Amino acid sequence: MNFLSKRAQAIAPYTAGEQPADKQYVKLNTNENPYPPSPRATEVLRAFDAGALRLYPRPDADGLRAAIARAEGVEEGNVFCGNGSDEVLALSFPAFFDEEGKPACFADLTYSFYEVFAAFFGVKTHIVPLKADFSFDLAAMQTADCAGYYLCNPNAPTGIALPIETVENFVASVGERIVIADEAYMDFYGQSAVPLTKKYKNLLVVKTFSKSYSLAGIRCGYAVGDEALIGGLFRMKDCFNSYPVDAVAQAVCTAAVEDKDYRDKTAALVKRERARLREALLSLGFTVPESGANFLFAGRVKKSGGELYRALKEEGVLVRHWEKPILRDFLRITIGTPEQNDVLLAKLKQILK
Ligand SMILES: *Cc1c(COP(=O)(O)O)cnc(C)c1O
Predict the structure, then answer these.
(1) Is the CB of 106 under 6 A from ligand 1?
(2) What is the whole-number distance in angstroms between the Cα of residue 49 and the centre of ligand 1?
């Protein structure tokens, strides 16, 4: 007997980066932040009253949403929170796309979860290949016959960022279609489209506490946009999960988002190392697009991405690699601490010798 639905049998789930427990790796494979969360968030966690867990959390995460709204310069009604931005992105598919309607448009090389969500929710896709320099082909995307877009900015896994003017021109030019800007890495670039959400009712910006706030383990992300779009996400959430963000996450993320200085300080450390690591990889002969994220996309050396990935793992350094055309010649390397990056560089030099 096979009890699985046809949908469950047919779908290809997203594969997250490995989180191995066999030994201590220099772990540069899942774009986690190498620095700890804000001391203020840590203190809130330490002082958290476990007795309060007897109660359900606030269903709409309103305290956290108010804190995010203050930090982003919008109103609480412009903010939606989910269990990681992955959940926010997931809910955006049924909220804004029809199974029988026009497709969702996104690049061939971008966050691979979009494709999984589209399949899961039965939304058709219109895939536009990146240009040869790995940038988005915005002209081809503009003319696609679609209901809306997923624009990962900076893009994953390439790290390439679009300046705010380019995003604004794109959002304005596609008028009636929704643009979902996935800004998981934006704090490492610093040109968020959030201010544009006041002017453009077709723009939804999605962010996360996982990367720049060093809180990947707590699972919290959010969207900012016009109240009508936020209302659409709430409708989907309330059909699926009445209490999405747990009480601990609400408290800790509230403290984290109120400590933007700390976030910016650690992001600055990451950006400094990003520049240093990129220079070092270029001098080893790697092709490395300029990155606006907390990782570098590096490859096209005499060894394939797979060979490098396996040799590095053998040496205790974990990076991300995919066996897909184009991607297979590259590694995606998370920016670590200066010490971690030094280990990576030393091992790469040894492997390439
Ligand atoms: C990490 C990441 C996310 C989601 O992260 P969560 O941990 O679910 O908030 C979303 N989009 C991109 C492009 C990412 O890299």
Answers:
(1) no
(2) 29
